[in-house]
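User: Predict the structure for this protein chain, please.
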Amino acid sequence: MAWAYVFAMLAWAFIPGVKRQGKLLVPLILILGILPDSDLLWGSFGIVHRTVTHSFFLWILLLIPVFVVFRLKAVPYFVAVVQHFAFGDFLMGKVMIFWPFDSKFFGFGFGMPSVVDVTLETAGLILAVGILIYVCDLRRLLSVDKRNVLMVLPSLALFISTLFFALHWSSINSLIAYILSNNLLIILALGHIILLALLAISSIQGLRALKPRSK
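Assistant: Here is the predicted structure, written as structure tokens:
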């Protein structure tokens, strides 16, 4: 999610003509950033992780109607979803990035968790927060604003992905013990907690804005 926002903002700021299309919808950017990993929920349908949903051609095909309607405005959103496997997963693992034309897996495979992984995840979170502050998005996301109701969606997505990982453990104590056994895991866990807290606060502020004011 953090890198999705960073790359989308870079596309918005530096690709000619995109910035004139208006501000980005941050909740949608965050959702798109982890959408390729929805294949984790489709194992019962024969979908293998980092295959079909991690292909350039699938997302180009799916987003053609979006580009036809929104043109340059769609570019940052395309970048947000593609960076997931073309940048993150490509570095950390191996992905079937050219499916269905090539069924080979490509990538550097640094692994998770690893020093490279933790460094990139931490850098992504720091850069995302820095950009949020610089463009004044953080102040709005933490304010009582009806637009922040949409932050419920990435909050739920991040919570579900965290829960999906936690369900692989027999108890919460064994999960905590596993995380505390490795400094890299501790840093990753703290990053997820910070991001989840930020999203949750924004969601709550959005829901607060929906409450009718007493006269």
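The two ends are 40 Å apart (CA to CA).
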